[in-house]
């Protein structure tokens, strides 16, 4: 089986995230890492490989600036077999639509060598968090979309997932090749072992430019985005409210008084 | 004025509140046309409801040929409808499914997409809340038909009578859109409480509950609120994942959010920071949640909440 797992390099959510003067996300001044939610995609890809057998290849695919190679490395350390980093100055500022184009073309290039059976993604990125790239990939690649899985099962080329939808829990089935995305409920992602970290250094990690995958620079980047950010504003810090200590039931009364004063009762 | 398509949010024909919010926003951009994709026998009922919130037209699409499959057929149906109606914008509820439909539709229509808008003004110019609510972003679509997914509670629904002209629309669904099948579906059990993402008040509990959600639920019921949970409470198996508020759960923006025994990690704050009023009850006065609150009680939720619940019920008479 041939699995491609998409991984995104994002600013650390626990750091002080900022925008650049051109209203794009600052991806250089803030420490970055493999998006936590993509670790679950890597984990499920590895679990599928473990069940499917040794002839399965897991390729970690990342689109992003130079430092984004860290996200691919982390996936390799976790156990992915090889990595591809699409790196091109023209990509900076791309929206989800352009990003999905770059990913789709890279997946097609990988597929030209060996047919891709599964394209795996996470629930959302932890920065922009649109949750639309897997659906866009399915649309672009013309593949079934089996997304937001909390449980993944497969037999031969049949995939079944549990999807905790907005109003119902569903079982979704599809036939490979397909696009799969998994949630953080799908199973704890493994930590890289020391052996994994050492082994990752010897794994193949290709860097592709846009011309390698047949994408014209005019199709990507901030200039080609179909949306435009007009303004970004830091939210004013919430002014500290009133905090009381509960003593002999005074807390409950104070709480009730507050809720009543705001007309919530 | 051009049409603005509004995708109706409903469960088996029962229209949900975000639909009315979207119709209210759509009026700022043009003439609202509701798009109902659902059981045909409920179409007339739905049309009456959306008409009261300004729908000039109601497109009804029978979902019988679509419903056995995941989002792809709905995206195809909307594409065909958009090509026919040439709307000024398309507003879609910002649910997981809504966003996936919107993503596919954006590629099909070669149109820009904005997700999770919390406000839409003339232009359309959207407002989004990003980076765990630490920034607001104003954006607009620059190519094609603006496709905007809108979060619940983004506008106060305003009643206004529309013409409500019903028009049946029958899309052609390709075989390619029928490749991801819904094999089984189990509707979520009704809790009798408001839906988490739509509720005006949310009362939630975290690690500090120690697994006992009774005080949380009792306070929620006294306030007519929805119940939420932190990731810690969900990971401990105390509450199902569908109750989780935070980055990997639901994002809520109610009038009042009451966090009980929740420390306030960034992942949780990402899901509730835009709430209008925030209240916390926590034993630990150092809990980061207290940095966000309008009102906080340092105390044991197991004594504070039942006493407060009793007083609230008494005041309601």
Automatic annotation (TrEMBL), chain A:
Q: Its biological function?
A: The electron transfer flavoprotein serves as a specific electron acceptor for other dehydrogenases. It transfers the electrons to the main respiratory chain via ETF-ubiquinone oxidoreductase (ETF dehydrogenase).
According to its UniProt entry, this protein's organism is Nocardioides luti
* Domain Electron transfer flavoprotein alpha/beta-subunit N-terminal intervals: 22-217
Q: Does the keyword Electron transport apply?
A: yes
Q: Which GO terms describe its cellular component?
A: cytosol
Similarity field: Belongs to the ETF beta-subunit/FixA family.
This protein is called Electron transfer flavoprotein subunit beta
Question: Which PANTHER family did the record assign?
Answer: ELECTRON TRANSFER FLAVOPROTEIN BETA-SUBUNIT, ELECTRON TRANSFER FLAVOPROTEIN SUBUNIT BETA
Give the top-rank taxon of the lineage listed in the UniProt record for this protein.
Bacteria
One GO MF term attached to the UniProt entry: electron transfer activity
Oligomeric form and interacting partners: Heterodimer of an alpha and a beta subunit.
For whether the record's keyword set contains Transport, the answer is yes
CDD domains registered for this protein in UniProt: ETF_beta
Instruction: Recite the UniProt keywords alphabetically.
Output: Electron transport, Transport
Under Pfam families, the record lists: ETF
Its needed co-factors are: FAD
